[in-house]
Amino acid sequence: MDHPSRYVFLGAGAIGSALGGLLARQGREVLLVARGEHARVMADRGVTLRCPDLTETVAVPVATAPDEAHLTVDDVLVLTAKTPQAADVLDTWGDAPVHDRDGIEVGRAADVLPVLVALNGVAGEEIALRRAERVFAVCVWCPTVLLEPGEVIVRGAPLRGVFHLGRYGHSPDPAADSSLLASIATDWEPAGCLVRPTDAVMGWKYRKLIANTGNALEALLGDTTGAEDITTAARAEAEEVLGAADLPVVGKEEARAGWEPEGLEFLPVPGEPAQLGGSSWQSLMRGTGSIESDYLNGEIALTARRIGRPAPVNAGLTALARRAAREGLRPGSITADELRRALGLE
């Protein structure tokens, strides 16, 4: 692959729509793969970016299925679906035909194209590697919110976010991988997306996983004010479990420096409430019926069970968040005191 000509965002929810819109705004070629009303609105009117320093609607191509995409050897697939949907999305798109520059079919997407896994948690890379040859992990530090079809809130300004990228699994051609990552940085950074290639990408994702154990609290409580002790307990438990399992975790000071570059602040967006939650909170707000807590708090519980350690706080949060999604509950369905009792923290 030479320089990528197009970024195909598979499962363009909040982060995929935000990245696609920001790149399209800078003249990069993108394709947003979405479904339902969100896909229809973006196809008709474009994607509206709502940032602290701008509001702009950007025209973007949209597809709902592989036969609408005409994939080529110059495409890069960016997996931005939620982890529970990742396998189905990759199964559908991995079998899509890819064409060379003369229009001749040269193979399947999973065999030919690079796949960037821009998901929370650390399970998406294994899901992708079961299906694709060339997989790259992406640690996303870019708060985005999708509540209304066709509109995405991006809270970073003037930079939009930081993205640590690196190859996942064996690389038969490190030089080609380095070239691809350099090209991505060249394309993304004018859009305010700071790209940092690293061989320690999974260490960054494990560090973010610890932070993301708080996502379930946002989803359940709505407002986590006064529940700092629960957040601290979940994160401390995660830190202990990952350390006991001897998994790579970027240090706190290194993470703080990496996620606080000059020019990146997370600010209020005009016309939007100050209290906006993360991906799990958004899932309950939109009533999707599913939530990714199994791959966040549940990842900590899974790791603990593998090594014979208890993780009652994260296991409990996983079960409560899953039930809330299944029953269609909204953020704020439980109080902090009720949550403490449920988790045995009183």
From TrEMBL:
Residues 201-323 form the Ketopantoate reductase C-terminal domain. GO terms for molecular function: 2-dehydropantoate 2-reductase activity. It is an enzyme of class 1 (oxidoreductase). The keyword Cell inner membrane does not apply. Its EC number is 1.1.1.169. Residues 8-160 form the Ketopantoate reductase N-terminal domain. It comes from the Bacteria. Pfam families: ApbA, ApbA_C. SUPFAM superfamilies: 6-phosphogluconate dehydrogenase C-terminal domain-like, NAD(P)-binding Rossmann-fold domains. The keyword Oxidoreductase applies. It comes from Actinomycetospora corticicola. This is 2-dehydropantoate 2-reductase. Keywords: Oxidoreductase.
